[in-house]
Every structure is written in structure tokens, then in C-alpha cells.
Amino acid sequence: MGAVTLLAKAMRVGLTVGVEGERLVVQGPKSAEAVAIELLDNKPAIVELLTPDVEEDLAERIAIMVVDGGLSPDEAERLARRDFFND
């Protein structure tokens, strides 16, 4: 499974995924533990996907959705991540 598909799967089961330094940080419900393990098993590809450039693109999408679309920041982030990783 590719990194984008895996991140989309993680989002569907309620996980949040980020990078802090060299660490891959995965948070979410205990019921999604199998997906979290899959993410960690694919750490290099996931970390590469979550580079600052990707985060900047997401931040721009979120800002547009909030300012132009009138969405709450939380809803805008959820939709932007869904759209970005399902492209």
C-alpha cells in the first residue's frame, strides 16, 4: 500500500499523523492500533510525504477554506487533509 493510501486509511479510522524531528507521531483511538502499526512499519515513506512542503500546501488550503469558505478551522483541516490525500 502506498504512503498516500495509507495516510488516507489512517484518517478514515480517526488517526492523526505528524512528524516531530525524526519521530513519526501517530495519535488516535485504540481501535485503530493496527493501522498505526502499519504507519510505523512504513515510516520512511510516511515521513517523506509529510515534509514541510506538504504541510505548507495543506496550511494554504485550510486558510482558503476558513477565509473564503467560512468553515471552522477544524472542519477546514479535516476536509483539506481528506482532499489532499485522496487526490
Count, helices: 5
Helix content: 55-70%
Shape: globular
Number of strands: 2
Sheet of most strands: 2 strands, antiparallel
Structural class: mainly alpha
Strand order of the largest sheet: 1-2
Compressed to H and E, one letter per element, the order equals: HEEHHHH
Task: Determine Rg (CA atoms, Å).
Answer: 13 Å
Uncertain parts: none
Residue-averaged pLDDT, rounded? 86
Strand content: 5-15%
Q: In whole angstroms, how far apart are the ends?
A: 16 Å
Describe this structure in words.
By secondary structure, this protein is mainly α. The protein is 64% helix and 11% strand. It has 5 helices and 2 strands; from the N terminus they run αββαααα. The chain has helices spanning 3-12, 33-41, 43-49, 52-67, 73-86; strands at 16-20, 23-27. A hairpin with a 2-residue loop joins β1 and β2 (23-27). α1 (3-12) packs antiparallel against α5 and α4 packs across α5 (73-86). The chain is globular and about 40 Å long. The two termini are 16 Å apart. The model has no long low-confidence stretch (mean pLDDT 86).
